[in-house]
Write a structure and sequence with these properties.
15 strands; 9 helices; CBS domain Like; six-stranded antiparallel beta sheet; six-stranded mixed beta sheet; about 300 residues; Hsp33 domain
Length: about 300
């Protein structure tokens, strides 16, 4: 790889797959900007919520990019703290969306980027891959353990016999910043015989993690530092090969037709709960789009 050769745009949303030649370790470098601007711009999230949701989006992007699937990958955290729920999902085509639910009264006193125990409390982290009605849905769940979302993901990987992975993550934005940016590096040691092996190759794995850890938060989010230059800076001594990058974009899957289909399954009490001044009103939690129906438009078995 030659420094300076980069097919990705500085402010774009993309994942750059790569391989460390000496060890065969695989990796992903994710950079996000406009996607986070779009997701957070649809809601007036307080800064602690916005920062953690930006991290969720970057984590979802880097984790999804390491999988082969045709459908939707969802990353979800649920807790008993001030931030009750955060969801980020990525389609196999690169469409991303996310939202958060929180108790504003309990957010007072939280740092701009609070720890997971303070922001979420006790709870769980869930990974879901949904490939449609004709495929079995995969879900992995682990309790929230660690100070950060990355720590929680590392805890999940430690419970898995199939994968060894390390992640470094940074976000920038919030108060005084015009645009949000996020960067995530993921190294993955693939199993050779069904299980991630110990012993052979451990030194290569440790060395790669040390090099990844040397990347600064500023480098991860620096729009002026091309992705390939960063990878060369970190791993050039062992040789690093890059593969074709893939793009992400903001994209919500809600539509009037889908909302109407869901409403038709509601019973009378459920419909009453979303009726405002004689209209059935639903707002998408992801994109904040508002759908307004006459009660007579919602006719189905559940409403009968």
């Amino acid at each position: 790889m030659v420094p300076g050769q980069d097919l990705t745009t500085p402010l774009g949303d993309f994942v750059q797959p790569f391989q460390i030649e000496a060890s065969g370790l695989r990796g992903r470098l994710v950079r996000l900007g406009p996607v986070i601007d779009s997701v957070l711009g649809r809601h007036a999230y307080p800064e602690p919520v916005a920062n953690l949701l930006a991290e969720m989006l970057a984590l979802a992007a880097v984790l999804a990019s390491a999988l082969k699937y045709d459908g939707v990958f969802t990353l979800q955290v649920k807790g008993a703290g001030p931030i009750r729920l955060m969801v980020a999902d990525v389609t196999s085509g690169g469409d991303m969306r996310g939202f958060a639910q929180f108790d504003g009264d309990l957010l007072e006193g939280l740092d701009a980027l609070p720890s997971v125990p303070r922001a979420l409390g006790a709870g769980y982290l869930a990974f879901t891959v949904d490939q449609g009605e004709h495929s079995e849905r995969y879900q992995g769940i682990v309790e929230l353990v660690g100070a950060s979302l990355v720590d929680c993901v590392h805890h999940y990987f430690r419970q898995s016999e199939q994968i060894r992975a390390g992640i470094k993550l940074a976000v920038a934005g919030g108060e005084g910043e015009r645009h949000w940016r996020a960067g995530a590096l993921m190294l993955q040691r693939l199993p050779r015989g069904g299980l991630a092996e110990d012993g052979d190759g451990d030194e290569d794995w440790r060395d790669a993690l040390i090099l990844m850890a040397s990347a600064t938060a500023a480098e991860l989010v620096d729009a002026e530092l091309p992705a390939n230059d960063l990878l060369y800076r970190l791993f050039h001594e062992d040789g690093v090969r890059v593969f074709t990058p893939a793009a992400f974009r903001p994209g919500c899957r809600c539509s009037r037709e889908r909302v109407e289909t869901v409403l038709r399954s509601f019973g009378p009490d459920d419909l009453e709960s979303v009726t405002v001044e004689g209209r059935v009103v639903v707002t998408c939690e992801f994109c904040n789009a508002r759908y307004d129906f006459k009660p007579s438009e919602i006719v189905g078995d559940g409403a009968a």
